[in-house]
Each structure stands twice: as structure tokens, then as C-alpha cells.
């Protein structure tokens, strides 16, 4: 007879991760809402801001986010109507286009990032020591790279050039 082990640490690990993520997003939402951004809007503009030339191919933006290509098109359409993002044709591939952060998009980010960083510090990173945070980030990257290998599509890794610096955009920050 097969015995169901509901006390399995694997269930605990995924449950804790899910609970922490959901609760953190609820803590971060007031600052995002005050800036007129949804969670996916913020993820999109922060990824663009942290990308070379503050732009990404639409396909790379879809790969980096949790959105399908049609989903990222709808988000970029909405952000474009708000003046936060603009589309730019790709000179080497007529089928491709870039989403580019506008000055208004950068200003919107500047209005929310200071509070968002305070919230991250209060509810997340400030609860961990420096060594714990580094270990946690290493573990998250290890998992992310297996379950979502295209998460940094279009990004340039600067960590080899500048120790401790990477251009990869944060997942869901």
C-alpha cells in the first residue's frame, strides 16, 4: 500500500515559496497602484529600464515575463497608450519590433522605485543577513535557470565586467 506523505518537505518548500510570493506582492501593491501601475506593468517597465538601450525585442520581453506573445502585445499596447513605452521597428528584421521605455516611462519608474525599494527592504531583503541574501539569490537563479531558461533573453550580463553587477531584470519585482 502506498502511503501519502503530506508532511513531505518538498510540499512545504513550494507552499512557503507560494505564500511568501503572494504576501510580498500584496505588500508591494499599494506603491505600484499609487504610481498607476499593475504588477505586470511594473515588471515590463523595470525590465525595459534594466535592458541595454532601455529596450527589448517584443519576443524577448515575452520570454522574460510570464506573458505569451499576445499578452505582452496587449500590455505594450496599453503602456504605449499611456506614453510609457513606444514601439520601434527592428532595422535588421521587418517582422520584429522593440518595446522601448520612454522618458515618461522612466519618470513613472522614478516615482515608484524609491518606495518599492523601501518595501522590499522592510518586507524581504532586510529580513536576511548579507550571506543569507546572497545564498538565496544564488538558489533562486539556479532554479529560475532550469524552469525558465529564457528569463534573461535579450539581456546583456555585465557581471563579468563589473563584479557584483548584472543587467538581468528581477523576476516579479
TrEMBL record:
Entry GO MF terms: DNA binding; DNA-binding transcription factor activity
Highest taxon of the lineage: Bacteria
Keywords (A to Z) from UniProt: DNA-binding
Biological process (GO), any one: response to stress
Every HTH marR-type domain range: 7-145
Entry keyword annotation includes DNA-binding: yes
Keyword Transmembrane helix: no
Entries under PANTHER family matching the protein: MARR FAMILY REGULATORY PROTEIN, TRANSCRIPTIONAL REGULATOR, MARR FAMILY
Stated name of the protein: DNA-binding transcriptional regulator, MarR family
Organism: Nonomuraea jiangxiensis
Amino acid at each position: 500500500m502506498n502511503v501519502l506523505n503530506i508532511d513531505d518537505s518538498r510540499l512545504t518548500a513550494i507552499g512557503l515559496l507560494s505564500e511568501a510570493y503572494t504576501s510580498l506582492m500584496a505588500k508591494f501593491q499599494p506603491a505600484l497602484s499609487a504610481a498607476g501601475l499593475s504588477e505586470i506593468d511594473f515588471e515590463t517597465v523595470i525590465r525595459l529600464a534594466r535592458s541595454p538601450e532601455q529596450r527589448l525585442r517584443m519576443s524577448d520581453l515575452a520570454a522574460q515575463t510570464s506573458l505569451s506573445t499576445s499578452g505582452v502585445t496587449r500590455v505594450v499596447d496599453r503602456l504605449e497608450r499611456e506614453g510609457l513605452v513606444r514601439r520601434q521597428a527592428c532595422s535588421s528584421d521587418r517582422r520584429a519590433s522593440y518595446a522601448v521605455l520612454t522618458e515618461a516611462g522612466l519618470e513613472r519608474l522614478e516615482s515608484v522605485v524609491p518606495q518599492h525599494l523601501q518595501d522590499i527592504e522592510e518586507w524581504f531583503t532586510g529580513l536576511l543577513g548579507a550571506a543569507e541574501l546572497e545564498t538565496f539569490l544564488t538558489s533562486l537563479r539556479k532554479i529560475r535557470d532550469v524552469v525558465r531558461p529564457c528569463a534573461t533573453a535579450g539581456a546583456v550580463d555585465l557581471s563579468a565586467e563589473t563584479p557584483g553587477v548584472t543587467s538581468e531584470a528581477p523576476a516579479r519585482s
